[in-house]
Amino acid sequence: MDPLTILLVGTGALVFREMNKKDYGVxxxxxxxxxxxxxxYCHQPDALIEEARLFTEYGLKAQAAMxxxxxxxxxRPAELKQAHEEVYQKxxxxxxxxxxxxVAFAFEGWTATKKASALREHVRxxxxxxxxxxxxxxxxAAEAEEKAYDAAKWSKDHxxxxxxxxxxxxxxxxxxxxxxxxxxxxIQESVVDDT
Length: 195
Description:
The protein is mainly alpha-helical. Helix content is 75%, strand content 0%.
C-alpha cells in the first residue's frame, strides 16, 4: 500500500471517529455513504479491513462483517479468482435454475453482489423463456383439441346424411323381394308341364 493511501485512510478514520462518537451503533447517513463507497470503490483489502475495524468500534457489526468479507474477496489469490470466474461463466451458460441460484447465493455471501445480480437476471430470463414455451405448447394443444372437437362435431352432424335410409313405400318398390336364383330343375319341370 502506498503512503498516500495510508494517509487518506488514517485521516478518514480520525475524522470518522471524532464526528461519530455520539452515535454509537447507529448507521447515520454519513456512515452509510462511507460504507457504500468502501464496498463499491475500495479495491485494497488493507483499507477495507481498516474500515471494518472502524465500523466495529462504533458498534456497526453487520457493516464491519461485510467489509471484512469484501476485503477477503478483494484479496483472493489469482488461482481462486480464476476458479470463481469459471464457476460464474459456467452458471451464466447453464439452464439449471436451482444450480444458478445456489451460485448466486454463494457470490452474495462473498459480497460479489453484481455477479449475483447478473445470475439472478439470467434465471429470470430462463424462467420467462420457459413460460413462453409452456404458453405456446398450451396454445398448440388447445388448437389441436379444438380441431378434434370440430372434426367430431362435423362427423356427428354429417353422419345422419351418410346413413342409408330405407326407401319410402310409395310405389311398392320398397317392399320388393330380393332376387333368388331359380334352380334348373324347376325350369325343366315347368317346361315339361306346358307340353
